[in-house]
Batch of 2 targets.
Target 1
Amino acid sequence: MTRIHNFSAGPSTLPVEVLEETREELVDYRGAGMSLVEMSHRGPHYDAVHSEALALACEVFEVPEDFAPLALQGGATLQFSMLAANLLAAGGVGAYAITGTWARKAVEDAARHGEVMTVWDGSSDQYRRAPRTDELAVEPGTRYLHICTNETIEGVRYTQWPDVGVPLVGDVSSEFMSRPVPWELFDLVYGGVQKNLAAPGMALVFVRRAALEGLEPAVGSYLRYDVHLAANSLHNTPPVFSVWVLGKVLRWMRDRGGLAAMESAAAERAGLLYGAIDGSDGWYRCPVEPSSRSLTNVVFRLPTPELEDRFVAEAERAGLSGLKGHRSVGGCRASLYNAMPLDGVEALVGFMEAFREANG
Ligand code: PMP
């Protein structure tokens, strides 16, 4: 079997051990004579998988007791609407800091469900950094401040958590469980699982239970957090395959030292790659200010768009896949999620040096 190095922004690399174990169990789940994805989601086999995955999510992500985990379909995108429909159900204003494409999409959808306000917008500066707390003009009494903690397309992350006196709501999709979250600042943390955590097909949401009290969102049952909370994320048929793989990835993470180990591995991978970029005498360039650089989505430019195209194509042939930047911004991007081994980054850095030598 040949596995390439997959630098795609998501879905992306999963631990090979998890894929192999899933393959082993796929056709006949633990002697049941059928697959887990063929059986009732209300039976004992799935029940055990579901409970273990949600419990592990809280354990690995170090989630405090006053938060509840929810496994929901619709990806992170549905959460843009859902969080506003729920958290603004009793009125109030949702504040948004626009650090890139995903924060912008979040406010656009939220505006259909409640009153929103943009308190910071980095677009005039081509989204090169995250704001400091003192730049965020959030009025007291604002229901929440929504942040995208790591912008997947622009490669910008918050290295300092905003502390603005109102609860934070965070989209952590592209750095899910790659670093700890200061839970005391948050009412809700969410993300799609298809980058760092599982096979595509769902979002994981962690919501402060008290934040849902007394709300009567005027939306259908699937869109209400309280409905999913009361049903332990079994209100309807859950995304069984995704939850199944999630449990396996979380066990893999826990066995490797959990969140602290994921965080230091992320820093090591990113340090190696930024080192290569910064050490190239400006041949490779990262447009993001050093204080806001993402550890999981490293964006970089080459001297010309033609060289970038050639770089991506030659890298692909060398077994380094998914290095093209998002079509909206161009350039190159290497996504380095939890399951990316260090030798993948070493191979990329070696390729970058050889490519520069041949074309510089
Ligand atoms: N937020 C961020 C930061 C993302 O990177 C993405 C997907 N790339 C999304 C939201 C949307 O996720 P989904 O496809 O799960 O709806």
Target 2
Amino acid sequence: MKKIGIIVGVALVVIAGTSGGIYLKHQHDVQAEKARVARVYAASKSKATRAVAKAYASGKTEDVQKAEALVAQLHSKDRKKSQAKLETLKLDLQAIATAKAAVDTLTANLSDDNLTQAQSKIAALTSAYTAKDKATLQQLVNQQKEKLAAQKLAEEQKAKAEAEAQKAAAEKAAQEKAAQERAGQTSSPAIPAGSKLIALTFDDGPNPASTPQLLEILQNAGVPATFFALGQEAQAYPDLIRKEAALGNEVASHTWDHKDLTTLNPTAQQQEILSANHLINQLTGQNVTLFRPPYGAYNASVLAQTNLSAVNWSVDTNDWRYNTPAPVVQNALANAHDGAIILLHDIHSWSVAAVPQIIQTLKAQGYTFVTVSQLLEARYGGAQAHQIYFGQ
Ligand code: NI
């Protein structure tokens, strides 16, 4: 009996112990479960955080996608923060990809447009994340930019060389034509005996602002003129000298830079006259042997220094004193006469503007317009060296 009693007692204790134990065990399990869930979440969170870091480090699409999938499982607060980070990363990666593509296009096809595109795409890389790629891409673009500049320079030089070759060919053709004309193979229209002759002369040019218009006026009127050009202006505007000659005008030296020859020593006098004469003949292919002393100022030494003939004028329009065409027209017409050499300046717009009326009126009066050489040929059988001519 005593043994049974003990067993019952133990059983009761066990029962009592068990029921209390179940409660305690329940409490314990809940806490354990909470802790387990927290551990699991912490693990996912840290996994997601590592994935985001990896995506940032690699910049690979698959890593970004993995990170996005992991972040999507996080609680709202953590998720939003990480998603915002990933969105920023995606924008940066997209900008880098766009810039890379633009640089690839530039490298494949070097052009100004592609250079501008690539530079603007690189300029759009402003975040710290893109800084390294930006520097690399910028370096590539700089290399392409240098290449492009070198290409352009080569093209420009090629175009320049071609233009120079064309010019030289045209110059040669003009010289050959002029040589033929001198040889009498193509004759200029003969001047009928008894014609009233008049020579228009234009000094101090050529001038890019006024000479082209004058050339057009003369060409339209079918009238030749004589240009007494300055060497330094001929050097500055050689194409205008060539054009003057090409249109049938005579081009002669007015000295290099318009010094009063009577104030210079003989060597300087010769130098002033001949330097312009040589340059102009070289440009025109003509062999003009006339010169006009600046200010009409000459003396025996001036005439003796070269084998050229000096030419002054018999009608001075005094055009440099005015600034409108009317008095220039008036002075030319009032003093015009057979065999006249009329002095004008193609550097003044009003002088050029006076020319159409001068030509029209003198043509109506029966004048034939000739160059100075043609006039001297017709009246003196040609110009003599060391002589000065004024027009009759
Ligand atoms: Ni002059």
